[in-house]
Amino acid sequence: MTSSEVWDAETAARYDADSAEMFAPDVLDPAVDLLVGLAEGGPVVEFAIGTGRIALPLRERGLEVRGIELSTPMVEQLRAKPGGREIEVTVGDMATQRVGAPGSAALVVLVWNSLSNLCTQDEQVACFANAAAHLRPGGRFVVELWIPEIDRLSAGGRVALATAELGDHIVLDEFDVATQSCVSHHYRHDPDAPPGTVRYGTGRFRYAWPAELDLMARLAGLTLEARHGSWDRAPFDHTSTSAISVWRSA
After folding, report:
1. What phi and psi, each to the nearest 5 degrees, are found at residue 123?
2. What is the pTM for the complete model shown?
3. What is the rounded distance in angstroms from the CA atom of residue 7 to the CA atom of residue 4?
4. pLDDT tens digits, one per residue of 119-159
5. 62 and 160 share one domain
6. Do the strands 88-91 and 65-69 form a parallel or antiparallel pair, or are they unpaired?
7. Residue 177 and which of 7, 62, 82, 117 are 20 to 30 A apart at CA?
8. Which of 163, 92, 158 is nearest to 130 (CA)?
9. What range(s) does the Methyltransferase domain occupy (predicted)?
10. Do strands 105-110 and 44-47 pair parallel, antiparallel, or not at all (unpaired)?
11. The dihedral of CA 33, 34, 37, 42: what is its sign?
12. Same domain, 218 and 132
């Protein structure tokens, strides 16, 4: 059984609104542009396809897309969107579930930190192996994953402020550096809610450094082709808060 949390209907219904900044053209368009180029005509498999933030634009650009998603309510949100029913989605664990013909995908995509939803190293290693099993020779696996800013922790501390957006959304990250685990605590005030009302949510993650990801990729028979600090191909360096990694099959 996967260690990933399964998002319920209420969370899925709020997902797009709560993540509105990730749907903004200046965020989404560079990601889609880079992925379209890497796909070389497809087909594409997206792990943790969610509500289709990436998959629907890829399909609009002419690519065949299949997806794997653990949460049935998230899939229902995708299927309610224009074109959503045209994308084949299988409900299952991205570390083990297979879709399409083995070894046929030109590109496997896993974006916006979703690899860290797998809370054990074994499951993350299995996810890389599963991606490799989907890829044709020369196919690519692309992962977008955050670089945990543990330097924000005070000496001996475990909790750090991650974001504060005008007081409407505050995130506190609780780290355990011994296990590379993190619990994010989200506090939101919805504009239409009564004054003083706060909506609380939490999520569990396992973070991994780029060097560890490269070893997972090597175990799966994949070789690092490129690493960027953002979707617009900014260099990855010590100041990067995220890594866009591209590995290629033999």
Report:
1. -70, -35
2. 0.92
3. 9
4. 999 999 999 999 999 999 999 999 999 998 888 888 778 88
5. no
6. parallel
7. 7
8. 92
9. 44-139
10. parallel
11. negative
12. yes
